[in-house]
Amino acid sequence: MSEPYSAMAQLQISRSALKSYLAAPARPTSYWSDWADMRGRKDATGRQDGLPFSLHREMDFDSVDRWLSEGDYRSHLHDILGVAEMPSAARFDYDEQTGLATIVNLTVGAECFRNPLWFLATVRGAADYMDAGSGLAVIRQHLWGGSKSKYTLAVSQLEPGSSRFLNPSADAYTDAVHRAGTAFTAISLGPPEV
């Protein structure tokens, strides 16, 4: 088994929009045509020339689409959180005062990028239900190795009606990675990231 990735999403979404999103049938990965725009960045080197290894050929869209065809977004988020290696390694929180939903799973499986792809597709579906605000989704190697081996595989930005992958040189990408690191550290065993 490969070392797991960590996944985090934050969505600025009203409670009524969140309820609509969670009750909606999940869309297939083909709903978004920009998967090849996913880019990663290594923390130590800042290298930004794509993912640390070639995932584009290995992404198992067929399996993920089979999963997405069964159920609504609520059941998919429940199942995504349920694949955590330890129950304490995954969490869904909704802050009523700020309207911020946070979804974290520290141990998302890495094989053929199925679980990270499933997470991204599930979270990106929220954009169609967001009534205002924005959101983000991050897939990152967070748990294993020291600070020199950390890297981010994808950052997606969500806005009402759309989502897109960010370029690693964008300030919003760096901010999203920092926010993800803070969320991961809040429930992980490791030291805070700087």
Outline of the structure:
The protein has 194 residues and is of the alpha+beta class. It has helices at 15-23, 61-68, 73-82, 114-124, 171-187, and strands at residues 5-12, 41-42, 90-95, 100-108, 135-141, 151-159, 162-165. The longest helix is centred in the last third of the chain and has 17 residues, at 171-187.
Provide structural commentary.
The chain has helices spanning about 15-25, 60-70, 75-80, 115-125, 170-185, and strands at about 5-10, 40, 90-95, 100-110, 135-140, 150-160, 160-165. It has about 190 residues and is of the alpha+beta class. It has one domain (about 5-185). Strands 1, 2, 3, 4, 5, 6 and 7 form a 7-stranded antiparallel sheet that branches.
For the record, the count of structural domains works out to 1
Q: Work out the strand percent.
A: 15-25%
How far apart are the first and last residues' alpha carbons, in Å? Answer: 29 Å
Low-pLDDT segments, ≥5 res: 52-56, 190-194
Number of helices: 5
Shape: globular
Largest sheet, described in full? 7 strands, antiparallel
What is the mean predicted local confidence, pLDDT?
85
Helix amount, in percent?
25-40%
Radius of gyration: 15 Å
Order of secondary-structure elements: EHEHHEEHEEEH
Number of strands: 7
**Derived structural class:** alpha+beta
